[in-house]
Write a structure and sequence with these properties.
The complex is a heterodimer of chains A (300) and B (254). Chain A has twelve helices and 13 strands. With 300 residues, chain A is an alpha/beta fold. In chain A, the strands form two sheets. In chain A, strands 1, 2, 3, 4, 5, 9, 10, 11, 12 and 13 form a ten-stranded mixed sheet that branches. In chain A, strand 9 and strand 10 form a beta hairpin. A ten-stranded mixed sheet of chain B has the order 4-3-2-1-5-10-11-12-13-14, sandwiched between helices. In chain B, strands 6-7 form a two-stranded antiparallel sheet.
Chain lengths: 300, 254
């Protein structure tokens, strides 16, 4: 039984200076966990994500990070991430180091980490300037005579935090919709925290084993946190809060407004439940998804 | 007759370039609407592929990002990004990919990383995302960009995604599977690439656009095809699909 509170999961598994991966591509982004990390005042984190998104913009604004490892730095479809730009360009609130890949390169780093390989080869980066600014992207000669091939080193986070639809109390976790690189990131990490919309019986998991992305075997803590991925979305549970992604563009342009937002919505609430309450019912009504059920299959 | 916008002309021209294509790697924004238009006109068998892991999307509404939940509902397959980049893209299953950028040079090389110096940029842009490997692997790359002197530059500040690099033959020499950029669709004109040199060649002007209008918006003097034509204007049916079905709010048309 690994069920615990967000407070205790973060207190136990996320430490100052850790390398942290909170993955989830557009969907299932673990904002509740990020806010708890901010509340607990973690510092000097190396934050890894393909798309830093608003989640790392907020963590950087709160002074949690010393470095970003990423492949696409933007508020998708909206514009730049202003807090991260302030940190990079002006060192506010603290200087921020960047280590930059392409998406495939980041995925390959997680694969190398998960497979416990010294590197992973991929056909990318030829002709690009990226290897010139990131010396960890290298080329090796294929031992089978196919010429040079790009390689990237393993990424083994100290902790991976994965948001999903449901899990049992032992951390057997089912995820559907966009899968991103969550499986690879989780298997690569030394510790895994799983945050879910619903806790279900083990029988529910066993009734549909193909949907289990992450086995309890590699999970250290399970947190039940409804709406824990807002303002991103969870397929079948709530839609993406596109209005908030637009609003953040306004808020985050201004350093004081960003601090005021963090004060009200992160430091000013005890936990995610209070944030959900404070957002109000109309938010959750607005984000209610349509019904599109899959047909059951026979596993007999 | 000029009752359509330059953006509508650009979307229609891009959609037509997809005639007969089977799989297209879609970006959000203009490529997305162009691909959806193509699916309803010149390429009925077109499967939309998104780097978020979606193959065969049939979005009921225009998605706002490449990870929009509307892309998942009713898709043929949703897979991990390891599978999408490893099996679909690197595995050679993508016919055409749409790309764009803040800067492009005459060989179709693209910059989406920084304006200015990398260590001390004037503007920090989003970076590669999947564009670097997409540019290497897709059989053909189609580019949609608004024509402007700031974007069509003599020299890139940073080369994120390789086009024809320094000219024809370089991609083959470096073992890149894809053939690289084939067409650049802008709001004023269409370019293709000279197979001999790998350089961008102006092949058609949108109705009402003059050659000097194009030259004025470019950082180099473009080569002009001896067969320079006028782009076929949008048909009433293309405009109806765009305005009534694909983008009723007019987000991408202005």
């Amino acid at each position: 039984m690994k069920l615990t509170t967000m407070h205790d999961a973060i207190a136990t598994y996320v430490h100052d200076g850790d390398t942290v991966a909170i993955e989830g591509f557009t969907a299932c982004i673990g904002f509740a966990a990020a806010h708890e990390i901010i509340r607990q005042g973690r510092r000097d984190l190396v934050l890894c994500r393909m798309t830093p998104d608003l989640i790392y913009d907020q963590m950087v604004a709160a002074g949690c990070a010393r470095k970003l490892v990423f492949s696409y730095l933007g508020n998708p479809g909206v514009g730049p991430l202003h807090a991260i730009r302030r940190a990079v360009e002006k060192g506010i609130p603290a200087p921020l180091e960047l280590e930059e890949y392409s998406h495939f390169g980041m995925v390959a780093r997680y694969i190398a980490g998960a497979y416990r390989l010294p590197f992973f080869p991929l056909r990318s980066y030829v002709g690009s300037d990226l290897p010139k600014v990131n010396p960890r992207i290298r080329f090796v000669e294929s031992p089978y005579g196919d010429g040079p091939i790009a390689v990237v080193p393993p990424l083994n986070p100290d902790v991976a935090i994965i948001h999903a639809q449901r899990a049992d109390v032992n951390g057997n976790t089912q995820l559907w919709g966009l899968l991103g690189a969550q499986k690879e990131a989780a298997f690569a990490a030394r510790h895994v925290i799983v945050v879910v919309e619903e806790i279900v019986d083990e029988e529910v998991i066993r009734s549909d084993p193909n949907r289990t992305l992450i086995p309890g075997l590699i999970v250290d803590a399970v947190v039940h946190e409804p709406y824990g991925a807002h303002p991103s979305y969870v397929q079948g549970y709530y839609d993406r809060d596109n209005d908030f992604y637009l609003r953040w563009d306004e808020i985050s342009r201004d350093e004081a407004a960003t601090r005021a937002w963090l004060e009200e919505w992160v430091y000013g609430v005890r936990d995610r439940a209070e944030y959900v309450e404070k957002m109000g019912r109309e938010t959750w009504e607005r984000l209610k998804p349509a019904q599109a059920w899959s047909r059951p299959v026979n596993y007999g | 007759m000029n009752d359509y916008t330059p953006s509508e002309m650009m979307i229609v021209a891009a959609a037509r370039a997809l005639a007969g294509v089977r799989t297209v790697f879609v970006g959000v924004g203009l490529p997305n609407i162009a691909c959806n238009l193509a699916q309803r006109t010149v390429a009925p068998d077109l499967e939309l592929v998104y780097e978020s892991g979606v193959y065969g999307a049939r979005p009921a509404r225009l998605p706002l990002s490449i990870g929009d939940p509307a892309l998942i509902t009713g898709a043929l397959s949703v897979c991990s990004m390891a599978d999408l980049f490893g099996l679909y893209l690197q595995g050679g299953r993508i016919d055409v990919a749409f790309l764009g950028g803040a800067q492009i040079d005459r060989y179709g090389n693209l910059n989406t990383t920084v304006i200015g110096d990398y260590a001390h940029p004037k503007v920090r842009l989003p970076g590669s995302g999947g564009a670097c490997e997409i540019a290497i692997h897709a059989r053909q790359v189609f580019i949609i960009m608004r024509l402007s002197r700031r974007s069509f530059v003599e020299r890139l500040d940073f080369l994120t995604s390789p086009g024809h690099l320094g000219g024809s033959g370089e991609r083959e020499r470096l073992g890149m599977p894809g053939r690289g950029p084939q067409v650049v669709v802008t709001d004023k004109c269409v370019f293709r690439f000279d197979p001999g040199t790998g350089e961008m060649v102006l092949v058609s002007l949108h109705p009402g656009v003059r050659l000097e209008d194009v030259r004025a918006e470019m950082g180099w003097d473009p080569r002009v095809s001896p067969d320079l034509t006028e782009t076929e204007p949008p048909t009433p049916e293309e405009l109806r699909l765009l305005r009534e079905e694909l983008d009723p709010l007019g987000v991408y048309r202005s």
